[in-house]
Amino acid sequence: MTKKKSVVYFTDLRATSKRNLFDKLDELLSLVGVGERFKRGHLVAIKLHFGEKGNTSFIQPVFVRRVVDAVKKTGARPFLTDTNTLYTGTRANSVDHLQTAVENGFAYAVVAAPLIIADGLRGNDGVEVKVDGRHFKEVSIAREIASASGIVALTHFKCHEMSGFGGSLKNIGMGCASRKGKLAQHSNSAPVVDPDGCVACGECALVCPANAIEIGAKAVIDANICIGCGHCIPACPEGTINVRWNETTGHLQEKLAEHAKGALAGKEGLSVFVNFVTRISPACDCYGHNDAPIAPDIGILASTDPVAIDQASADLVNAGSGYPENTALKSGHAPGGDKFRGVYPEVDWQIQLRAAEAMGLGQRQYKLEKI
Length: 371
Ligand code: SF4
Ligand code: SF4
Description:
With 371 residues, the protein is α/β, with parallel strands linked by helices. Helices cover 32% and strands 19% of the residues. The longest helix is centred in the C-terminal third of the chain and has 20 residues, at 245-264.
Protein backbone atom coordinates (compact mmCIF):
# COMPACT_ATOMS: atom_id res chain seq x y z
CA MET A 1 0.00 0.00 0.00
CA THR A 2 1.33 3.46 -0.92
CA LYS A 3 2.02 5.62 2.10
CA LYS A 4 -0.06 8.80 2.26
CA LYS A 5 2.06 11.90 1.75
CA SER A 6 2.19 14.57 4.45
CA VAL A 7 0.38 17.75 3.51
CA VAL A 8 2.28 21.03 3.58
CA TYR A 9 0.19 24.17 3.13
CA PHE A 10 1.84 27.10 1.41
CA THR A 11 1.12 30.71 0.64
CA ASP A 12 3.25 33.07 -1.38
CA LEU A 13 3.45 36.68 -0.29
CA ARG A 14 0.95 38.15 -2.72
CA ALA A 15 -1.74 40.09 -0.88
CA THR A 16 -4.72 42.30 -1.57
CA SER A 17 -6.77 44.78 0.42
CA LYS A 18 -9.34 42.00 0.95
CA ARG A 19 -6.83 39.30 1.92
CA ASN A 20 -3.61 40.44 3.50
CA LEU A 21 -0.78 38.30 4.89
CA PHE A 22 -2.35 38.11 8.33
CA ASP A 23 -5.49 36.65 6.75
CA LYS A 24 -3.36 34.13 4.88
CA LEU A 25 -1.49 33.17 8.04
CA ASP A 26 -4.86 32.66 9.79
CA GLU A 27 -5.90 30.34 6.96
CA LEU A 28 -2.70 28.31 7.29
CA LEU A 29 -3.19 27.96 11.04
CA SER A 30 -6.75 26.86 10.49
CA LEU A 31 -5.74 24.29 7.86
CA VAL A 32 -3.25 22.62 10.22
CA GLY A 33 -5.97 22.42 12.86
CA VAL A 34 -4.84 24.93 15.46
CA GLY A 35 -8.51 25.55 16.29
CA GLU A 36 -9.16 21.88 17.10
CA ARG A 37 -5.87 20.64 18.53
CA PHE A 38 -5.62 22.94 21.51
CA LYS A 39 -8.19 23.13 24.30
CA ARG A 40 -8.99 25.08 27.43
CA GLY A 41 -6.42 24.18 30.07
CA HIS A 42 -3.60 23.57 27.60
CA LEU A 43 -0.40 25.57 28.05
CA VAL A 44 0.97 25.95 24.53
CA ALA A 45 4.63 26.76 23.82
CA ILE A 46 5.08 29.02 20.82
CA LYS A 47 8.71 28.19 20.10
CA LEU A 48 10.55 30.87 18.18
CA HIS A 49 13.84 32.73 17.99
CA PHE A 50 13.73 36.24 19.42
CA GLY A 51 16.82 37.23 17.40
CA GLU A 52 20.22 38.25 18.68
CA LYS A 53 20.56 41.98 19.30
CA GLY A 54 21.58 43.59 16.01
CA ASN A 55 19.94 40.87 13.88
CA THR A 56 16.84 41.80 11.89
CA SER A 57 15.96 38.52 10.11
CA PHE A 58 13.81 36.93 12.82
CA ILE A 59 10.03 36.64 12.41
CA GLN A 60 8.31 39.96 13.02
CA PRO A 61 6.39 40.13 16.33
CA VAL A 62 3.19 41.26 14.55
CA PHE A 63 2.98 37.82 12.87
CA VAL A 64 3.63 36.11 16.20
CA ARG A 65 0.72 38.06 17.69
CA ARG A 66 -1.53 36.53 15.07
CA VAL A 67 -0.49 33.04 16.17
CA VAL A 68 -1.00 33.94 19.82
CA ASP A 69 -4.52 35.13 19.01
CA ALA A 70 -5.32 31.91 17.13
CA VAL A 71 -4.20 29.75 20.07
CA LYS A 72 -6.09 31.93 22.57
CA LYS A 73 -9.32 31.49 20.60
CA THR A 74 -9.27 27.79 21.51
CA GLY A 75 -9.25 28.60 25.22
CA ALA A 76 -5.64 27.41 25.57
CA ARG A 77 -3.02 29.71 27.05
CA PRO A 78 0.03 30.36 24.85
CA PHE A 79 3.47 31.54 25.92
CA LEU A 80 6.43 32.55 23.76
CA THR A 81 9.58 30.64 24.44
CA ASP A 82 13.18 29.91 23.46
CA THR A 83 16.24 28.55 25.24
CA ASN A 84 19.48 30.24 26.22
CA THR A 85 22.49 30.03 23.92
CA LEU A 86 25.73 28.15 24.46
CA TYR A 87 27.83 31.12 23.43
CA THR A 88 28.19 34.47 25.09
CA GLY A 89 26.01 37.08 23.45
CA THR A 90 22.74 38.81 24.19
CA ARG A 91 20.72 35.62 24.87
CA ALA A 92 23.08 33.50 26.99
CA ASN A 93 21.03 33.79 30.20
CA SER A 94 17.35 34.50 30.82
CA VAL A 95 17.89 38.08 31.99
CA ASP A 96 19.76 39.14 28.85
CA HIS A 97 17.53 36.96 26.69
CA LEU A 98 14.27 38.56 27.87
CA GLN A 99 15.79 42.01 27.61
CA THR A 100 16.86 41.28 24.01
CA ALA A 101 13.44 39.86 23.14
CA VAL A 102 11.67 42.98 24.39
CA GLU A 103 14.14 45.25 22.58
CA ASN A 104 13.50 43.27 19.39
CA GLY A 105 9.80 44.03 19.67
CA PHE A 106 8.43 41.03 21.61
CA ALA A 107 6.82 43.23 24.27
CA TYR A 108 3.54 42.11 25.84
CA ALA A 109 1.75 45.07 24.27
CA VAL A 110 2.66 43.66 20.85
CA VAL A 111 2.55 39.88 21.28
CA ALA A 112 -0.12 39.59 24.02
CA ALA A 113 1.52 36.55 25.60
CA PRO A 114 4.08 36.08 28.36
CA LEU A 115 7.70 35.26 27.51
CA ILE A 116 9.22 32.28 29.33
CA ILE A 117 12.80 31.20 28.76
CA ALA A 118 12.40 27.44 28.83
CA ASP A 119 15.69 26.25 30.31
CA GLY A 120 16.00 28.43 33.40
CA LEU A 121 18.14 31.37 34.39
CA ARG A 122 21.41 29.93 33.11
CA GLY A 123 20.23 27.26 30.69
CA ASN A 124 20.72 24.38 33.11
CA ASP A 125 17.10 23.40 33.64
CA GLY A 126 16.49 20.32 31.51
CA VAL A 127 14.69 17.01 31.80
CA GLU A 128 15.90 13.73 30.35
CA VAL A 129 13.63 12.29 27.68
CA LYS A 130 14.05 8.79 26.24
CA VAL A 131 14.59 8.71 22.47
CA ASP A 132 16.50 5.52 21.78
CA GLY A 133 18.54 7.03 18.94
CA ARG A 134 21.80 6.11 17.30
CA HIS A 135 23.76 8.67 19.33
CA PHE A 136 21.65 9.02 22.47
CA LYS A 137 19.33 6.83 24.49
CA GLU A 138 17.98 9.96 26.19
CA VAL A 139 18.31 13.68 25.54
CA SER A 140 18.10 16.77 27.75
CA ILE A 141 15.14 18.98 26.82
CA ALA A 142 14.37 22.40 28.33
CA ARG A 143 11.98 21.83 31.23
CA GLU A 144 9.26 24.31 30.30
CA ILE A 145 9.04 22.95 26.75
CA ALA A 146 8.85 19.39 28.06
CA SER A 147 6.11 20.56 30.46
CA ALA A 148 4.03 22.32 27.80
CA SER A 149 0.85 20.64 26.56
CA GLY A 150 1.63 21.37 22.93
CA ILE A 151 3.90 23.33 20.67
CA VAL A 152 3.63 25.72 17.75
CA ALA A 153 7.07 26.02 16.18
CA LEU A 154 7.44 29.33 14.37
CA THR A 155 10.62 29.12 12.34
CA HIS A 156 12.56 31.57 10.24
CA PHE A 157 13.89 29.32 7.46
CA LYS A 158 17.40 30.31 6.29
CA CYS A 159 20.84 28.88 5.56
CA HIS A 160 22.90 27.51 8.43
CA GLU A 161 26.63 27.00 8.71
CA MET A 162 26.38 23.64 10.50
CA SER A 163 23.28 22.07 8.95
CA GLY A 164 23.06 23.74 5.53
CA PHE A 165 19.67 25.19 6.39
CA GLY A 166 17.94 25.91 9.64
CA GLY A 167 14.22 25.03 9.64
CA SER A 168 11.65 23.48 11.94
CA LEU A 169 13.88 20.52 12.82
CA LYS A 170 16.68 22.79 13.96
CA ASN A 171 14.29 25.12 15.81
CA ILE A 172 12.96 22.11 17.70
CA GLY A 173 16.07 19.95 17.95
CA MET A 174 18.68 22.49 18.94
CA GLY A 175 16.32 25.23 20.07
CA CYS A 176 14.43 23.12 22.64
CA ALA A 177 17.54 21.48 24.13
CA SER A 178 18.93 22.55 27.49
CA ARG A 179 22.56 23.66 27.68
CA LYS A 180 23.50 20.03 28.34
CA GLY A 181 21.57 18.95 25.24
CA LYS A 182 23.18 21.64 23.09
CA LEU A 183 26.64 20.69 24.27
CA ALA A 184 25.91 17.04 23.51
CA GLN A 185 24.96 18.01 19.95
CA HIS A 186 27.99 20.22 19.43
CA SER A 187 30.58 17.85 20.90
CA ASN A 188 33.34 16.93 18.45
CA SER A 189 32.44 19.93 16.31
CA ALA A 190 35.61 22.02 16.70
CA PRO A 191 36.65 23.46 13.33
CA VAL A 192 40.26 23.63 12.19
CA VAL A 193 42.36 26.45 10.72
CA ASP A 194 44.28 25.76 7.52
CA PRO A 195 47.53 27.56 8.38
CA ASP A 196 48.40 28.09 4.71
CA GLY A 197 45.47 30.49 4.31
CA CYS A 198 45.67 32.23 7.68
CA VAL A 199 46.96 35.82 7.71
CA ALA A 200 46.64 36.12 11.52
CA CYS A 201 44.12 38.98 11.27
CA GLY A 202 42.40 37.92 14.51
CA GLU A 203 38.81 38.28 13.20
CA CYS A 204 37.98 34.72 14.28
CA ALA A 205 39.16 35.30 17.85
CA LEU A 206 36.98 38.40 18.08
CA VAL A 207 33.78 36.43 17.49
CA CYS A 208 34.72 33.30 19.44
CA PRO A 209 32.41 33.15 22.48
CA ALA A 210 34.58 30.57 24.25
CA ASN A 211 37.98 32.27 23.84
CA ALA A 212 39.15 29.09 22.16
CA ILE A 213 41.30 30.73 19.47
CA GLU A 214 44.84 31.87 20.04
CA ILE A 215 46.42 34.20 17.50
CA GLY A 216 50.16 33.87 17.08
CA ALA A 217 51.89 33.65 13.72
CA LYS A 218 48.71 31.77 12.76
CA ALA A 219 45.35 31.17 14.45
CA VAL A 220 45.04 27.95 16.45
CA ILE A 221 41.77 26.54 17.81
CA ASP A 222 41.89 24.69 21.13
CA ALA A 223 39.46 21.81 20.57
CA ASN A 224 39.21 21.24 24.32
CA ILE A 225 37.76 24.72 24.87
CA CYS A 226 35.79 25.09 21.63
CA ILE A 227 32.03 24.63 22.01
CA GLY A 228 31.52 23.98 18.30
CA CYS A 229 29.23 26.95 17.65
CA GLY A 230 30.71 27.53 14.19
CA HIS A 231 30.80 31.34 14.52
CA CYS A 232 34.44 31.62 13.46
CA ILE A 233 33.79 29.97 10.09
CA PRO A 234 31.93 32.79 8.31
CA ALA A 235 33.95 35.38 10.27
CA CYS A 236 37.23 34.44 8.57
CA PRO A 237 37.80 36.79 5.61
CA GLU A 238 40.23 34.29 4.08
CA GLY A 239 37.79 31.37 4.28
CA THR A 240 40.47 29.27 5.92
CA ILE A 241 38.51 27.87 8.87
CA ASN A 242 36.71 24.65 8.14
CA VAL A 243 34.76 22.04 9.99
CA ARG A 244 35.84 18.43 9.63
CA TRP A 245 32.64 18.02 7.69
CA ASN A 246 32.29 14.27 7.48
CA GLU A 247 32.79 13.72 11.20
CA THR A 248 30.92 16.73 12.43
CA THR A 249 28.03 18.31 10.55
CA GLY A 250 26.58 14.92 9.71
CA HIS A 251 26.67 13.80 13.30
CA LEU A 252 25.36 17.14 14.49
CA GLN A 253 22.35 16.84 12.18
CA GLU A 254 21.65 13.32 13.38
CA LYS A 255 21.93 14.47 16.98
CA LEU A 256 19.59 17.38 16.42
CA ALA A 257 17.02 15.00 14.93
CA GLU A 258 17.27 12.89 18.09
CA HIS A 259 16.76 15.99 20.24
CA ALA A 260 13.78 17.00 18.07
CA LYS A 261 12.29 13.61 18.83
CA GLY A 262 12.76 14.28 22.54
CA ALA A 263 11.27 17.77 22.35
CA LEU A 264 8.13 16.49 20.62
CA ALA A 265 7.69 13.41 22.81
CA GLY A 266 4.24 13.33 24.39
CA LYS A 267 2.98 16.08 22.10
CA GLU A 268 1.67 13.83 19.35
CA GLY A 269 -1.25 15.56 17.68
CA LEU A 270 -0.42 18.72 19.59
CA SER A 271 2.48 19.98 17.46
CA VAL A 272 2.23 22.43 14.57
CA PHE A 273 5.04 23.84 12.43
CA VAL A 274 5.11 27.11 10.52
CA ASN A 275 8.11 28.13 8.39
CA PHE A 276 8.60 31.72 7.25
CA VAL A 277 10.76 31.36 4.14
CA THR A 278 11.57 35.03 4.04
CA ARG A 279 14.77 37.07 4.42
CA ILE A 280 16.73 33.94 3.54
CA SER A 281 20.00 34.93 5.16
CA PRO A 282 23.21 32.91 4.75
CA ALA A 283 23.55 32.17 8.47
CA CYS A 284 21.42 31.74 11.57
CA ASP A 285 19.73 34.49 13.59
CA CYS A 286 22.18 33.92 16.45
CA TYR A 287 24.57 36.48 15.02
CA GLY A 288 24.37 40.13 15.93
CA HIS A 289 24.00 40.91 12.24
CA ASN A 290 22.47 39.27 9.19
CA ASP A 291 24.09 39.35 5.79
CA ALA A 292 22.03 40.07 2.68
CA PRO A 293 19.46 37.42 1.71
CA ILE A 294 20.73 34.93 -0.86
CA ALA A 295 17.38 34.53 -2.62
CA PRO A 296 14.03 36.35 -2.88
CA ASP A 297 11.33 35.77 -0.29
CA ILE A 298 9.25 32.66 -0.98
CA GLY A 299 6.31 32.65 1.43
CA ILE A 300 4.93 30.92 4.52
CA LEU A 301 4.39 27.15 5.00
CA ALA A 302 2.49 25.21 7.65
CA SER A 303 2.26 21.50 8.43
CA THR A 304 1.95 19.01 11.24
CA ASP A 305 5.01 17.20 9.87
CA PRO A 306 8.38 18.84 10.69
CA VAL A 307 10.25 16.73 8.14
CA ALA A 308 7.86 17.44 5.29
CA ILE A 309 7.75 21.18 5.96
CA ASP A 310 11.55 21.46 5.96
CA GLN A 311 11.85 19.36 2.80
CA ALA A 312 9.21 21.50 1.10
CA SER A 313 10.85 24.74 2.23
CA ALA A 314 14.25 23.60 0.92
CA ASP A 315 12.71 22.50 -2.36
CA LEU A 316 10.97 25.85 -2.84
CA VAL A 317 14.18 27.78 -2.19
CA ASN A 318 16.12 25.57 -4.59
CA ALA A 319 13.43 25.73 -7.27
CA GLY A 320 13.75 29.50 -7.48
CA SER A 321 16.62 31.75 -8.50
CA GLY A 322 19.29 33.01 -6.14
CA TYR A 323 20.33 36.63 -6.13
CA PRO A 324 23.00 36.88 -8.84
CA GLU A 325 25.44 39.17 -7.09
CA ASN A 326 26.56 40.81 -3.89
CA THR A 327 25.47 37.99 -1.57
CA ALA A 328 27.16 35.01 0.09
CA LEU A 329 25.73 32.68 -2.59
CA LYS A 330 28.68 31.33 -4.60
CA SER A 331 26.97 28.79 -6.86
CA GLY A 332 23.57 27.30 -7.70
CA HIS A 333 22.05 30.67 -8.65
CA ALA A 334 19.85 29.30 -11.44
CA PRO A 335 16.44 27.72 -10.73
CA GLY A 336 17.06 24.16 -9.56
CA GLY A 337 20.51 24.96 -8.19
CA ASP A 338 21.32 23.95 -4.62
CA LYS A 339 21.32 27.27 -2.73
CA PHE A 340 22.46 25.74 0.56
CA ARG A 341 25.45 24.04 -1.05
CA GLY A 342 25.93 27.35 -2.84
CA VAL A 343 26.71 28.93 0.52
CA TYR A 344 28.15 25.90 2.38
CA PRO A 345 29.49 23.56 -0.33
CA GLU A 346 30.64 20.87 2.11
CA VAL A 347 27.45 20.54 4.16
CA ASP A 348 25.00 17.81 3.17
CA TRP A 349 21.78 19.41 4.47
CA GLN A 350 19.76 16.32 3.59
CA ILE A 351 21.24 14.39 6.53
CA GLN A 352 18.90 16.06 9.04
CA LEU A 353 15.88 15.13 6.90
CA ARG A 354 16.97 11.51 6.54
CA ALA A 355 17.78 11.24 10.25
CA ALA A 356 14.48 12.79 11.33
CA GLU A 357 12.53 10.53 9.01
CA ALA A 358 14.38 7.51 10.40
CA MET A 359 13.47 8.64 13.93
CA GLY A 360 9.79 8.59 12.94
CA LEU A 361 9.32 12.36 13.12
CA GLY A 362 7.69 12.58 9.71
CA GLN A 363 8.38 11.93 6.07
CA ARG A 364 10.15 13.61 3.20
CA GLN A 365 7.35 12.79 0.77
CA TYR A 366 4.85 15.60 0.84
CA LYS A 367 1.98 17.15 -1.02
CA LEU A 368 2.16 20.93 -1.36
CA GLU A 369 -1.23 22.62 -1.19
CA LYS A 370 -1.13 26.25 -2.16
CA ILE A 371 -3.76 28.56 -0.68
S1 SF4 B 1 33.48 26.98 16.71
FE1 SF4 B 1 34.95 28.65 16.44
S2 SF4 B 1 33.93 30.45 17.36
FE2 SF4 B 1 32.83 28.62 18.10
S3 SF4 B 1 33.82 28.12 20.05
FE3 SF4 B 1 34.87 26.91 18.47
S4 SF4 B 1 36.61 28.15 17.88
FE4 SF4 B 1 35.21 29.51 18.96
S1 SF4 C 1 40.01 35.03 10.74
FE1 SF4 C 1 41.00 33.56 9.35
S2 SF4 C 1 42.79 34.61 8.56
FE2 SF4 C 1 42.12 35.76 10.36
S3 SF4 C 1 43.27 34.88 12.07
FE3 SF4 C 1 41.38 33.74 11.98
S4 SF4 C 1 41.82 31.96 10.69
FE4 SF4 C 1 43.47 33.44 10.35
